[in-house]
Design a protein that fits this description.
Belongs to the sigma-70 factor family. ECF subfamily. This protein is mostly helical and about 160 residues long. It has nine helices and no strands.
Protein backbone atom coordinates (compact mmCIF):
# COMPACT_ATOMS: atom_id res chain seq x y z
CA UNK A 1 0.00 0.00 0.00
CA UNK A 2 1.35 3.45 -0.93
CA UNK A 3 2.11 6.05 1.70
CA UNK A 4 -0.79 8.30 0.69
CA UNK A 5 -3.25 5.39 0.67
CA UNK A 6 -2.01 4.37 4.12
CA UNK A 7 -2.55 7.91 5.42
CA UNK A 8 -6.08 7.99 4.00
CA UNK A 9 -6.76 4.69 5.77
CA UNK A 10 -5.34 6.12 9.01
CA UNK A 11 -7.54 9.21 8.78
CA UNK A 12 -10.60 7.03 8.25
CA UNK A 13 -9.66 5.01 11.33
CA UNK A 14 -9.19 8.22 13.34
CA UNK A 15 -12.68 9.30 12.25
CA UNK A 16 -13.94 6.06 13.85
CA UNK A 17 -12.15 6.86 17.13
CA UNK A 18 -9.00 4.76 16.66
CA UNK A 19 -6.33 6.24 18.95
CA UNK A 20 -3.59 4.02 17.48
CA UNK A 21 -4.26 5.50 14.04
CA UNK A 22 -3.96 9.01 15.49
CA UNK A 23 -0.67 8.03 17.11
CA UNK A 24 0.60 6.73 13.75
CA UNK A 25 -0.30 10.03 12.08
CA UNK A 26 1.28 11.92 14.96
CA UNK A 27 4.55 10.03 14.50
CA UNK A 28 4.52 10.84 10.79
CA UNK A 29 3.48 14.48 10.97
CA UNK A 30 4.33 15.97 14.36
CA UNK A 31 7.90 16.87 13.28
CA UNK A 32 6.63 18.59 10.11
CA UNK A 33 3.88 20.45 11.98
CA UNK A 34 6.37 21.52 14.64
CA UNK A 35 8.85 22.68 12.00
CA UNK A 36 6.19 24.68 10.19
CA UNK A 37 4.97 26.32 13.40
CA UNK A 38 8.49 27.02 14.64
CA UNK A 39 9.46 28.69 11.34
CA UNK A 40 6.42 30.96 11.48
CA UNK A 41 6.23 31.66 15.23
CA UNK A 42 9.96 31.51 15.97
CA UNK A 43 9.13 30.00 19.36
CA UNK A 44 9.58 26.32 20.24
CA UNK A 45 7.08 26.33 23.10
CA UNK A 46 4.34 27.92 21.00
CA UNK A 47 5.17 25.48 18.19
CA UNK A 48 4.56 22.57 20.60
CA UNK A 49 1.16 24.08 21.40
CA UNK A 50 0.36 24.21 17.69
CA UNK A 51 1.27 20.52 17.35
CA UNK A 52 -1.03 19.63 20.24
CA UNK A 53 -3.88 21.76 18.87
CA UNK A 54 -3.42 20.35 15.36
CA UNK A 55 -3.73 16.74 16.46
CA UNK A 56 -6.68 17.54 18.69
CA UNK A 57 -8.40 19.09 15.67
CA UNK A 58 -7.49 16.06 13.53
CA UNK A 59 -9.04 13.81 16.20
CA UNK A 60 -12.22 15.91 16.25
CA UNK A 61 -12.48 16.54 12.51
CA UNK A 62 -11.06 13.47 10.75
CA UNK A 63 -14.46 12.66 9.27
CA UNK A 64 -14.20 15.92 7.29
CA UNK A 65 -11.19 14.72 5.31
CA UNK A 66 -12.13 14.00 1.70
CA UNK A 67 -9.41 12.38 -0.42
CA UNK A 68 -11.17 13.68 -3.54
CA UNK A 69 -10.34 17.24 -2.42
CA UNK A 70 -6.67 16.78 -1.54
CA UNK A 71 -3.88 14.75 -0.07
CA UNK A 72 -3.69 13.84 3.63
CA UNK A 73 -0.43 15.80 4.02
CA UNK A 74 -2.01 18.96 2.63
CA UNK A 75 -5.09 18.57 4.85
CA UNK A 76 -3.01 18.01 7.99
CA UNK A 77 -0.64 20.89 7.30
CA UNK A 78 -3.59 23.16 6.49
CA UNK A 79 -5.08 22.34 9.88
CA UNK A 80 -1.71 23.14 11.45
CA UNK A 81 -1.43 26.36 9.50
CA UNK A 82 -4.86 27.78 10.28
CA UNK A 83 -4.09 28.95 13.84
CA UNK A 84 -0.86 30.45 12.50
CA UNK A 85 -2.70 32.17 9.66
CA UNK A 86 -5.09 33.80 12.13
CA UNK A 87 -2.42 34.85 14.66
CA UNK A 88 -2.99 38.49 13.82
CA UNK A 89 -5.56 39.92 16.24
CA UNK A 90 -8.99 40.11 14.68
CA UNK A 91 -8.09 38.23 11.51
CA UNK A 92 -10.47 35.38 12.24
CA UNK A 93 -13.37 37.77 12.63
CA UNK A 94 -12.58 39.33 9.23
CA UNK A 95 -12.60 35.95 7.52
CA UNK A 96 -15.38 34.40 9.61
CA UNK A 97 -15.40 31.73 12.29
CA UNK A 98 -16.92 28.81 10.37
CA UNK A 99 -14.28 26.36 9.13
CA UNK A 100 -16.14 25.51 5.95
CA UNK A 101 -16.67 29.14 4.99
CA UNK A 102 -13.03 29.89 5.85
CA UNK A 103 -11.84 27.18 3.49
CA UNK A 104 -14.09 28.42 0.70
CA UNK A 105 -12.92 32.03 1.07
CA UNK A 106 -9.26 31.05 1.26
CA UNK A 107 -9.63 28.74 -1.76
CA UNK A 108 -11.28 31.57 -3.73
CA UNK A 109 -8.58 34.03 -2.68
CA UNK A 110 -5.87 31.55 -3.68
CA UNK A 111 -7.47 31.18 -7.13
CA UNK A 112 -7.01 34.91 -7.62
CA UNK A 113 -3.23 34.49 -7.30
CA UNK A 114 -1.01 33.55 -10.20
CA UNK A 115 -0.02 29.88 -10.43
CA UNK A 116 3.52 30.81 -9.31
CA UNK A 117 2.22 32.70 -6.26
CA UNK A 118 -0.09 29.82 -5.29
CA UNK A 119 2.74 27.30 -5.65
CA UNK A 120 5.10 29.41 -3.52
CA UNK A 121 2.54 29.79 -0.73
CA UNK A 122 1.67 26.09 -0.86
CA UNK A 123 5.32 25.09 -0.61
CA UNK A 124 6.12 27.59 2.13
CA UNK A 125 3.04 27.38 4.31
CA UNK A 126 1.33 24.09 3.60
CA UNK A 127 4.34 21.91 2.89
CA UNK A 128 6.63 23.65 5.36
CA UNK A 129 9.60 24.60 3.16
CA UNK A 130 11.78 27.38 4.54
CA UNK A 131 12.74 30.33 2.35
CA UNK A 132 16.27 28.95 2.06
CA UNK A 133 14.97 25.53 1.03
CA UNK A 134 12.73 27.16 -1.59
CA UNK A 135 15.66 29.14 -2.98
CA UNK A 136 17.61 25.89 -3.45
CA UNK A 137 14.59 24.02 -4.81
CA UNK A 138 13.65 26.72 -7.32
CA UNK A 139 17.16 27.93 -8.15
CA UNK A 140 16.28 31.51 -7.21
CA UNK A 141 18.19 33.96 -5.02
CA UNK A 142 16.92 33.99 -1.42
CA UNK A 143 15.86 37.64 -1.70
CA UNK A 144 13.70 36.82 -4.73
CA UNK A 145 11.95 34.02 -2.84
CA UNK A 146 11.29 36.30 0.13
CA UNK A 147 9.99 39.21 -1.95
CA UNK A 148 7.72 37.00 -4.08
CA UNK A 149 6.27 35.29 -1.00
CA UNK A 150 5.75 38.67 0.66
CA UNK A 151 3.92 40.00 -2.44
CA UNK A 152 1.79 36.85 -2.69
CA UNK A 153 0.82 37.10 1.00
CA UNK A 154 -0.08 40.78 0.62
CA UNK A 155 -2.22 39.95 -2.42
CA UNK A 156 -3.88 37.08 -0.56
CA UNK A 157 -4.55 39.28 2.47
CA UNK A 158 -6.15 41.88 0.21
CA UNK A 159 -8.48 39.24 -1.22
CA UNK A 160 -9.50 38.09 2.28
CA UNK A 161 -10.50 41.54 3.57
Amino acid sequence: MGEEAEEIRLLRRVALGDEEALLALYRRYAPRVHGLARRILRDGHEAKDVVQETFLRIWNQAERFDPALGRPATWILTIAHKPLFFEEEGAEERVGGDDHLDRIRVAQALKALSPEERKLLELAYFQGYSHSELALLLGWPLGTVKSRIRRALAKLEGKLR
